[in-house]
Amino acid sequence: MSGAFRLDRLLANMGYGSRKEVQQLVRSGLVTLDGAPVADADMRLKVEPELSSRMRVRGARLDPVPGMALMLHKPKGVTCSHKEAGTLVYDLLPSRWRAREPAISSVGRLDKETSGLLLLTDDGDLLHRIISPKRHVAKRYLATLARPLQGHEGAAFASGELMLEGEDKPLAPAVLEPLTPTTAWLTVTEGRYHQVRRMFAAVGNHVNELHRDRIGGLNLPGDLEPGTYRLMRDEDIAAVFT
Fold it and tell me: Is there a common fold for 4-61 and 139-215?
């Protein structure tokens, strides 16, 4: 979102309530800008990231304005969905954010039992840039396997000829880096359904644990605990495409 917007529309779109409820907040002096109460709910504001540091709502700093991106450390047992049963990744965010417009969406998915780096954004253009097959954004996973590697898996994954069950198009080449007989890094540039698990199944193995630590050139920060998130900076977004 860019340009100038009415304050009541902006805050309503950010989940602070209906436009009438936002207008009541303003009348009650609960919305301030640069330390002073906002006089009119229909004032027009330029929507830019700096607004979050300049505005307070009910005494708290304004949420990130539309056009934001987050990195989240997804724990196991959490689903990348808006509707499925159980704990969802969106439950890890402030409840108010579920009412935001445009909505926050995950950039691709990690299955319920996979942990690691997950990006979320309300910027549709950014989302599509990252997941576009033309971008070839690499994703690295640490796989813990049920059986020892046999030595042929790296060549099979790198061949560009490996077929997954039920599909008629071979996978793009992927890079396997064994760590121990039963653990390895696997870097892929596609995002097919349960791809990493199905790749190991195709070579006769089973993934017991799966963790994603990198998207493009962006690493999961070591101090980002499971279930927590942080706002991405411009340099973080740029790193995805390096």
Answer: no
The C-alpha atoms of residue 122 and residue 107 are separated, in whole angstroms, by 10
Give me the long-range contacts of 94-99 (CB less than 8 A, separation at least 24).
Answer: 94/63, 96/14, 96/15, 96/16, 96/63, 97/15, 97/63, 98/15, 99/15
Task: Please name the fold of domain 139-215.
Answer: Alpha-Beta Plaits (3.30.70)
Tokens of 161: 């000829």
Which CATH architecture fits 4-61? Roll (3.10)
Catalytic, out of 34, 63, 111, 213? 111
The DSSP symbol for 97 reads G
Give φ, ψ of 119 to 5 degrees. Answer: -100, 145
Task: Give Cα separations from 241 to 116, 120, 130, 224 (angstroms).
Answer: 19, 16, 8, 21
- Residue range 69-133+223-232 forms a domain whose CATH class is alpha beta
Q: Is 111 marked active-site?
A: yes
Distance between CA 110 and CA 153 in Å, rounded? 23
Closest CA relative to residue 61, chosen from 91, 90, 94: 94
How far apart CA 179 and CA 175 sit, in angstroms, is 13
Predicted confidence at residue 2, as pLDDT, reads 56
pTM (predicted TM-score): 0.94
Which residue numbers in the chain have pLDDT < 70?
1-2
Place of tokens 């996978």: 171
